[in-house]
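Review form for a predicted model. The reviewer records the input and the model, then writes brief findings.
Reviewer: anonymous (R2)
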Amino acid sequence: MTSCSSLSSFNLHRSTVTNRHVIISSTVKTADGNNNGTSSSSSNIRDEARRNRSTSKNPFSAKYVPFNAPPDSTESYSLDEIIYRSKSGGLLDVEHDIEALRNHDGAYWRQLFDSRIGKTKWPYGSGVWSKKEWVLPQIDDDDIVSAFEGNSNLFWAERFGKEFLGMNDLWVKHCGISHTGSFKDLGMTVLVSQVNRLRKMNLPVVGVGCASTGDTSAALSAYCAAAGIPSIVILPADKISMAQLVQPIANGSFVLSIDTDFDGCMKLIKEITLELPIYLANSLNSLRLEGQKTAAIEILQQFNWEVPDWVIVPGGNLGNIYAFYKGFKMCYELGLVDRMPRLVCAQAANANPLYLHYKAGWKDFKPVKADATFASAIQIGDPVSIDRAVYALKNCDGIVEEATEEELMDAMAQADSTGMFVCPHTGVALTALFKLRNRGVIAPTDRTVVVSTAHGLKFSQAKIDYHSKAIPDMACRFSNPPVEVKADFGAVMDVLKGYLGSKAL
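Model under review:
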């Protein structure tokens, strides 16, 4: 665990610790000290990747540009620069050389991505790095930090769709079936890999830091631990589940519990990373979104490159809705598919600034003070990626919906009762689906994908409280508490006969 005293032992040189560092050289040596990547060892998959590395010039590249910049903008930065904002203070985006990617047709990219699924070849067996050319094309394979994340289950919600929604083509993308139990792994493998590269280039990066409502800190701590990079986590005190809190602690992060909400933690980490050589890992950093967009590409792969009609994504800091848009958009632009799905962003009513902005016709965005919600990971009132989310939704005829606490908990319980075990955030997205079906916006035959962002086990206490009917002012209509019975055969038989009688056809 990194301590405050050990941080202070570094020579910080404040004059060089700024929001931007220009790279002089991009030469990176491999782990065996050679620039050519050759190795006589065949002991592991990294060595094999080095031996088989192509010696031809990499035709693909990417750079930072101001988000939604005008066509005549010339502002850009290398991905090897440490920078989070444009000159105007706006967001940055990772822009790929689309013309270079277009030198291959859609069929080529489909075949390439499909050929890598689930393999152990480093690093392409990962759901993220199987799309390396579209993610971080210039990084050396040896610098990548991966847990073979992604390739998550696309669950056909047959019974849930039929019984509760009258739908026959409903799917749930279980992004929470991942290394640390959330979709955040998809972005963190990219960000930590780039930090690993920067540190090998001897840039002043002491560690990586984030503000978090739980899942970001879990992903950051795991990938930093795998790479041997110090991680610093700032959490809002008493506002995340114990299962989420224990992850960064177990992975050796330096954890600060702050008496504020997520927005307060976010303000602190942004100020800290301006003063200390700590790399910012929140979704303000556009590298994260490059990994997260691969979940959209995965969905298309899993449907054999057929495009669903709708994709519903829970939204808090709002980077993920843009990431899904970006993944679908790249597939459309490069000819892998012939259309885009419509996106829905679902917010908790207790933290709904995007929903209010949408209902106001996208006029005069105003942050809100987020109230407590069981969907704690999206309890964010001033989302960093608001501009990204609005852009994405406007460009795919998207919709924003909200869910009350009772609605999201009921939806979660209904999903669980049909064989799933989802998080409250998935309950928010399912509530949005209920509302859009009831209004006839989503048709019973529309192929619809609900994105589940975290594993249900992270929120076991919320589920216990629901099924125990221990939540004040909530009916908990679908609760299923255990029945207490005496240790007597007759008593047990009476209870079982009553239960089975109620289930008789």
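Findings: The first strand starts at residue 62 and ends at 66.
Further findings: Residues 1-41 have pLDDT under 50 and may be disordered.
Recommendation: see findings above.
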